[in-house]
Design brief:
seven-stranded antiparallel sheet; 8 helices
Amino acid sequence: MILQCIAPHQCFRVPQSLTNRFVTRMSSSSETISATPPPRPPLSSPSTTRREALSLSFISATCSSLLSLLTPASASSAISDFFELPNSGGVKALDLRLGSGEVPSNGDQVAIHYYGRLAAKQGWRFDSTYEHKDQNGEPSPFVFVLGSGKVISGIEEAVKSMKVGGIRRVIIPPSQGYQSTSQEPLPPNFFDRQRLFTTIFNPTRLANGEGSTLGTLLFDIELVSLRHQ
């Protein structure tokens, strides 16, 4: 489930022209080859040839990456890329980009951007600060004081060891996620909040012993800035 959140799969469609060419070559392979050779295609310019080579190389590399993600062997290697943050209660992190700025401390005011997803809903994205716009139409980051206790523990644990400018993907277990409907960050849309909390705090599913999975969260966090208080 979590791997589906991390790496959604995409499919590439083979162009019809390439399919027709392949079928034509296969059907004509059993026929007698004509004595007259086919006309040679016009020579491509070096720049065109280089662009085609780069395009084919890019498509090949992308397909190989996607195919590797679909295999069970790579599933275990993808998880092994994550590491458990010390004394975090089980929060696992993967640094997508290492920052070059300061590391925040408790009491600092930090600003982050994030994508928040819910594992129990097949990676449903319940919130994104990149969609929160200020009066100028620019993405508005989420600002909080580190160590204040107003934000879910998993985010605080992830941010406290990041550097400004870094981007980190974290898997937050239910024990470090939402413990109440008042903890931040909260989706601004009412229906998103309702769907989020009715899933996490579903009494029937909790009674069935599903509490260990219902509240698992996946966050992509970018530490934008910090200010010492």
